[in-house]
Amino acid sequence: MICSGPTSGIGLETARVLALRGVHVVMAARNVKAATKCKEDIIKGCPNATIDVMELDLSSLESVRNFANEYISKGLPLNILVCNAGVMALPFTLTKDGIESQFATNYLGHFHLTNLLLDTMKNTAKNCGKEGRIVIVSSELYKMTYKEGIMFDKLNDEKCYNSYLAYGQSKLANILHANELARRLKEEGADITVNSLHPGLIATNLSRHSSCMSICLFGVIRHFQKNIPQGASTTCYLALNPKVKGVSGEYFVDNNVAKANRKARDAELAKKLWECGMELTKSK
């Protein structure tokens, strides 16, 4: 099992819970030192846990490819891929690949990672006779995006940039990615499911770049927040629970299927995004 963003919040709790369930966990982290400390903390509570740490910076397509190549070279199986890592409300920045940072980290890095590891997941499912699962962490804030949904022609245009709408755009992209990948895998008969989810409002360091006003707003509604184990519940449910065997292309909230809005269910938009992702990651 691979989990991105495993050093805090939902990702750390997901890694911990799955390790406790006997899953071999690979913590895919930008900060290897922090991930190693998290690994040690988990093992203190579960000495029999099997955990590895590998470097992965989702904002860099080169790093994504290096991670995938290293993972594949180890000959490890892969049943579960949890696309959890994310950034929120960043000031406008471009990655070294020239892509707006929230779109690159939250969506494109996971898109590239998933594609590079798909054959490994297909082979694992076939060889072990057990369904593979891809779990993509989105957010209800996908509803707060640009009017077009995805601004294909202005993804990297600073003049049009709004940090919160850009975050919503990236989270909408997560859902569309899950839907289109699920459709493609069903079409080819692969024994892999793909679902997206909203974890709930959770106090994590994801919002560390948010404005003072936003932080005050979160303070007002803190009583409606979930704690981190509650927030990780749906991710763990989709990764392990037998009740969702065969369920694919759905959007989950609180461990239940929820109806996403029209944009998130737009099959043509999902296909267009897929083509965009393929073009941006071509030869990377």
Q: Can you describe what's shown?
A:
- It contains eight helices and eight strands; from the N terminus they run βαβαβαβαβαβααββα.
- It is of the alpha/beta class.
- Strands 3-2-1-4-5-6-7-8 form an eight-stranded mixed sheet, with helices on both faces.
- The longest helix is centred in the middle third of the chain and has 28 residues, at 101-128.
- The protein is globular and about 50 Å long.
- The two termini are 24 Å apart.
Walk me through the topology.
Layout: E1 2-4, H1 9-20, E2 25-29, H2 32-45, E3 51-55, H3 61-73, E4 80-83, H4 101-128, E5 132-137, H5 163-188, E6 192-198, H6 212-220, H7 228-240, E7 251-253, E8 256-258, H8 267-281
Helix pairs in contact: 1-7, 3-4, 4-5, 5-8
- Low-confidence runs: none
Class by alpha and beta content:
alpha/beta
List the strand order in the largest sheet.
Answer: 3-2-1-4-5-6-7-8
What is the oligomeric state here? single chain
Mean pLDDT: 93
Strands, total number: 8
The major pleated sheet works out as: 8 strands, mixed
